[in-house]
Each structure stands twice: as structure tokens, then as C-alpha cells.
Amino acid sequence: MFKKIKKKMANKPTTTAAAASSPPPSAAADEPFLDTTYNEPKVLLSVGERRNSTEDITPPSGSSSRGGLARRGSSKYITAKTSTLGMQNIYSTPLTATLHYTPPLYPKSSTDEKFISLAIQRNFVFANALITEEESSRKREIQQIVNAFELYTVSMPGEVILRGDRVGDYFYILKEGLVEYKSHDEDGNGEYRTIGMAKKPGQSFGELCLLYDCPPPADCVSGKSAGSSPSSGNVTKLWRIHKMAFRQIMALRTMRRDERMRDAIRKLDVLNGLDDEFLFRISDALDTRNVEKGEVLYRVGEEATHFFVMGTMGKIKLTTTTTAQSGKNKKSDGVILGAGEAFGGEAIVDGMKPRKHTATVMESTTLFTMSRQILDRTIGSLKDAIQLSRDRQLLKSISLFRDSDFEDFEYELLAALIETAHFHAGQFVYEEGKKIEEPALYFVRDGIFEGDQVDNERVYQKGDFFGEDSLTPDKNLKFAGAKGGTKYYDESVETLSDTAICGKLTLANIDSVVLDLHRLGCKRRGKEHRAYASSLRTQESDVEGRPESLSELEFHKLFGAGTFGRVWIVSKIGGGSLAYALKIQSKRELIDKRQASSAKRERLVMSKLDHPFVCKLVNTFQDDACIYMLQSLVQGGELLNLIQGGRQYGGMPEIATKFYGAAILEGLTYMHRRHIVYRDLKPENILLDSTGYPVIIDFGFTKVVTHKTYTFCGTPLYLAPEIILQRGHDRGVDYWSLGCLIYEMLFGNTPFYTSGIDQKGLLKNIVRGNWSIPSDAQVSDHATDLITGMLQRRVTERLGCLAGGYRDIKAHPWMKEVNFNKLVKKQIRAPWVPCIEGAFDISNFEEYESGNCNDYKDFTRTKKPLTADEQVVFRDF
């Protein structure tokens, strides 16, 4: 935990002084935040205006309330733990979920099975986690969990079952005996006394240990039942389940369901051109409908509005009606559909057209269904989604791209940048011998083209592509067009059909995604070529002056101290006044706390990021005992300071909230487009730079997620329900957290906290969606609507998770006046500009005891180095 020395914010100058002392914004920074005048109440900040009083936005003079949670900023680049409810980062050991997992099976009687089943269904964690669409699936999952409970016997009173100072691994149900909950007084030095007990069969404890790595709130100790004697042994018997078994079973449930739905949806001819990303989106958005035997779903001739997917059981009969020679209607024998089948696809293609069959329920079952309107809301235009899916696959099949080191998210971005080009008969796309001015790859969508080379002619039709050679470098390893290379077309391509349509992917668009064109076809080239290309990239990149080793760094002052390490303000020796933040973490402590993989993932993710609203990783180092991450220094303090100083702790002006919310959205969008999920959005992790713009820091929980991940992590106040329910999560959790953050900026507290609530109660509120807008709130209806959209419990209905993705948030009426182009270029004056006096000024943060500049050596010297075998863990850091 960070050691707080004093709160300098108490003596900070007013915003007027801060603005006067701050570096001047860019020439264009006087641009208004909004494109049009926004009618706010008089108390709110004027458009583009510097603050002249402390009425609305002033850094606080002390700790204030966050819905009952006092918390000053202290994270600064390094994850810190605090005992304050709701603000402690919580996480679970990373889970490698697999479809091949076999749940444990411990023998027990049917009476014991019923006893365990009833007990877990009364418990908050199990009751919510076991909610599912199909009753048959729910029964199967309950049985798997019951099977995974083992009998645990404690023979003597006084034995500690769970320690309050150690992470628990099991959840327990009392079978017989007594368990006492014991704890010292709050200061840890008082009487060790009983604060509660489990004495009735079926009572349980340790449920939060199932969700994430945490100790119980007290020691759980076997007790002595009344009337027992020492000779009786006073045995305590419990049923217990290991947290990894529980988490694997929950993950297995989601993975099997997703795979089953995907395979069934793919059986509909109209959807089988979609790739997995779209199929999984549809799967998650399906509604459920329980049907009984004999029920008619629809009849021949009725309007087709929905398609259906069968569950894990039941039968549906499809029959048609024909007219016999006698003129009488005659029913066909029909087709029987079983589990995992799909039908009714005509609703997708031929909306408003009549049904071709009659669908009758032969056995009661649960169906999954979707209308064309919901499909459009989920994936957008079906035609466009199919085309995008095909483009992704086609790009991966082209040899130049196949021999590259591109990741899946890059193929998605590239496919989205393919433009449409129209041609007419006789028009040349390009001609042999002419200099390549705009290198591009062409995909034939419609029509016919002829490629003409010396002694070689070929025809390009729908599904073919051409222009690949224009994307390769010349003999000097320079690319054609704007990159300055000199290349000429080696064939002519002419339009043969009356009209033709191509998809066109330009080299410029490729460059905007992959950032280094020498990655194109890099696997097919020799070592000398790659080495030379690497030297060119180094010459072109902006790394001049970057510190390349620890010996080049001068240490100035301690910036912060956290659970796993410390942060120093450093600069390059002889490198001028440019300051950095150097995070130092102990390898041994990371391994002991099972956080080594998180540290490596943080380094990997940060190396992929380069955005004005995201903290930049400059370099990394390591020695036998520690890892070092050199990052850009952001000096303006935490966003939390502004929230706590807003309107006498009642929230920030709506227009200021809009500014910070929009900029944070831009940073999240940048990560999401690269399949990076952040998972720890909160005001402490948003710093302000010298111009007052927000910068996202602390990437310890970030992860590249292509579909879903199952690791429980985050800060309780901002957790999305799907994380708590162990159902797998994706980028939707960040939109939920952004909704919580916007709420907090507006109202000064978080949406799910209530006075006196404990951790379990907080999680219940989140899962149940218990929140409301304060009755005395002075915010627009658009603000309320935006928050409501982002705090939808069902991911597929959440704003940001629909077909338009982040664009839906940008297009929301609350955001529509925001000039995002100017915002990302930092051409708008921030609502508040911090006072920063010099490159090493950190007075906008709490001050830490720094000692002398060599303290870091004392810190690292105390860290036990790893063995040679253990060093393998950090080999790729």
C-alpha cells in the first residue's frame, strides 16, 4: 500500500493560478469543445472557458466521499491495494479454460447430493452463476458442481479451516459440527474473539474465495459443540469445492453453449458466410422461448419474423401443405428436427414474406430465437457482415499477407478499410510500365477484368484479386507511392464487362494499421533483408535519445510505492530535462503473488500502444531480481482529484464530464480495435497531462481477448455483472466501467454503492442492476439515457456492444456535439489545466518519502534474485 506523507493538494493554488502557470496550449487549443452551443445550467463550465473560481472544478483540500468511500489517488503507474471497500483491486489466478476439462467426481449418497444442491442454491454466488436459459442445462451444471464437492473432516476443536490472513482456495458447507468466525479487534492487537459462527447444517462460508483471490474476513475455526466431551472428538464435517473446479465448470458451461449455438446458427444457409466473430455475437444476443408439446410456432403462409435454434433437447416438426389433384390440401410427412438444429431462416432474407412450412413442437423444449430487427442491431447489415467476413479470410489466404506476422485484430482493421471502386468497360485499373503512384490490392466484387502481361493473359472474376506486387518494396527496400520507392506495374488490368466493382486496399491504409510495412511478407525474406529493414525502421522511428539501459538513468525522487514495487522519477543522464516514470517490481514477489503473467502481459500490451490518451511505454529492462518499465511521465494528477473537488463534492459540470468521457472513450476505442480489453477503468487510473487531457495508465489487468476471457479482475465498484457471474467477458466490461465513471463524474459517487454495504452486497447490487439517478440531480435527459445504455446488464443490449460498437456511443445525443477529430488532436482547451512547474514537478500528487537518489539500489538490493530455472518465467520480458 502506498505510504502517504502529506496531502499537498490542500495548499494547491486556485485554478486561475494553475492556468496562468501552465504551459500554453497548442495554437488551436482555443477551439470550442462542442460544435454548437450547449445549453447548460448557469453553474456549469462555459464552453472553452478557463475556470476563474473554485465553484465547480477545484482540486480538493482533503479526502471526500465516493458514495461513502474515502479514497485519495495513489495508484500512479503501479497497482496498489487498499482495504477500503470497493477500491481494492481484486483478481483471480489466471484460468486456462478448455473444452477438454473433466470436472472432479467425489462419491456421495443421493441424500448428500440433495443436501449440497439445496445449500448452494441458497448462496448468492451459486444462485446467480447457475441462472441459465435451459432448465436441462441448469440441472446438469448443478450436478457437476455437486459432484465436485469433497468431504472434509476436522477431528479437533480449534483447528483453523480458513485463515483470515491468507488467500482461500475452498468454499465450505457445514455438514455437522460447529465453525466459529474469529478475529482480533480492528487494530489487530485486541482480543481474539468470536464474531459469528456456522452451527446449522447447510450454512456456508468462503464464497468470495471462489470468485477471486482473497482471504475470508475472519479466521474460520472448528468449534466445540455444546455438551460434547474431549473423548468424543467433537468432529466437524464439511463439504468443500476448490475454486478452480468451480471456475472451470462455469467457463466450460459458457464455452460449450457458445460453440453449440455457433455450430447451429451456421446451419442456416443465409448465415453460413459469417465468420466466428459475427456468429458469436448472434449467439449471445439470442432470446429464449420455452415451448410445450403440441404448440404451433408458425403456420404456412404466416409472416416470417424470427429464426429459431434448438436447445439441447426436444423435437420440432416442419410440414408443408400442397394441393392434390382433387383440389384438397395435403400435408407432407414433414421433417423432424432435433437438438442443435436451426430453422426459419427465411425470416432473415425474406422479411415480411410468408412462411414455407408449419412448425409444430413434438417434445417440450427451449428454443433460442431472433428477429431480423435484432439481427440488424447486433451485427448491422447482413450483406456487409458477410462481405467483411470473406475479406478477412481472403486477406489471410493471400501469400504476401500469409507470410506476414499480422495478428487477427490487424486483419479485422485492414478488412474494414477496404474501399469500393467502380469501373466501366475499357477502363484500365493500371497499365504495364507506368510508375506506381498509389499501391493497392484489388478484390473483384462483380464484373470481369483482364490482366495482360508479355506472353501471359489472365481473367480476373468475382473472388479473384490483383495488384499484390505493387505492395512490395523496390530493390532499395522502399515502398512505392508516398513512401518514396520507385516501382512500375508489370501488367495491365482492363475492365472487360460493362461495369465492374472492386474492393480496394491501399498501401497507405495498410501502413496506418500495421505501422511498419516491412512486416508485409517478412517471413519469406532472408535474414540480411530483415536486418537491413530493421535498421531502416530504427532510422525512421522516433527513438533517438531513448534510454537503452539502467546505467543511463539518473534517479531524482520516489514517486510511489505499491504492493509489488515502486516508481521513481528518472531522466537520461545528459539527456536534458525530459523526465520518465520508472516502475520497478520484484520478480520474486510477482511469482509468489501469482502475478508474473500479468506483468508480462502488461509489458506486451503497452508495447502495442501509441495514443495521446494512453500512457506510453518507452523501454523495459530486467536484472536477476527485478523488472523495470520506463514510461512517459504524466504530471497533472488524478481525475479523482477533480471529481472530489467538483461542486462541493457533488460531481463535475456536465460539459466537463463530457470532455473527459469522450477522451477516455477514444483511448478505450484505440485499445479495443486491437482486441485489448482494459478491465480496470476508474478515476485513479486516469491521469491528467500538462494540457489537462486524460491519460489512461496502469495496464496490469489488460489482456488481448479475441472472444471471451474468464479471469475475475478489476475494482469492485466498476465490475461488470458478467465478470461476477463467471460467464466470460470481453470489451463490454470497459463500456460498463465507463458508464460507472461518467456517473461518478456527474454525481460525485458511484452507482452501485449504498451506505453501510459490504463487498457481497455491492456485488449483489451490480448483478441485480440496483442503481438510480439521484433525485436532486441537475443533468440532462441525454446524460441519463447514455448511462442507462452503458449499464445494461445484458452485454448484447449494452451501448458500445451493438452493431455500431463505439460509434453508437459517439453518435449518442449526449455526445453528438463533441468534435472528436479536434479532441484526439488535442485542439480543444481542457476544462481545467494543471499547474506544473518543471519537468520533475509532481506536486499534483501526494508526496512520498524519497530519501536520496540512490534509494532504488537499496530497494533492489533487498529483493531476492531468482534461480536460473526461475528466470525462464521472464525470458521474454
TrEMBL record:
* Domain Cyclic nucleotide-binding, first and last residues per copy: 141-267, 270-380
GO molecular-function terms, A-Z? ATP binding; cAMP-dependent protein kinase activity; cGMP binding; cGMP-dependent protein kinase activity
Q: Which residues form the AGC-kinase C-terminal domain?
A: 816-877
**Signal peptide (from-to):** none
Q: SUPFAM superfamilies, alphabetically?
A: cAMP-binding domain-like, Protein kinase-like (PK-like)
- Pfam families the record matches: cNMP_binding, Pkinase
Region span, Disordered: 1-36, 48-74
Instruction: Show the coiled coil region(s).
Output: none
Q: What are the GO cellular component annotations?
A: cAMP-dependent protein kinase complex
UniProt entry keywords in alphabetical sequence: ATP-binding, cGMP, cGMP-binding, Kinase, Nucleotide-binding, Serine/threonine-protein kinase, Transferase
Source domain of life is Eukaryota
Matching InterPro entries: AGC-kinase_C (IPR000961), cNMP-bd_dom (IPR000595), cNMP-bd_dom_sf (IPR018490), Kinase-like_dom_sf (IPR011009), Prot_kinase_dom (IPR000719), RmlC-like_jellyroll (IPR014710), Ser/Thr_kinase_AS (IPR008271)
Which intervals carry biased composition (Low complexity)?
A: 61-72
> Which residues fall in a compositionally biased region of kind Basic residues?
1-10
Checking PANTHER family in the record gives: CYCLIC NUCLEOTIDE-DEPENDENT PROTEIN KINASE, PROTEIN KINASE DOMAIN-CONTAINING PROTEIN
Please report the name of this protein according to its UniProt entry: cGMP-dependent protein kinase
Task: Give the originating organism.
Answer: Skeletonema marinoi
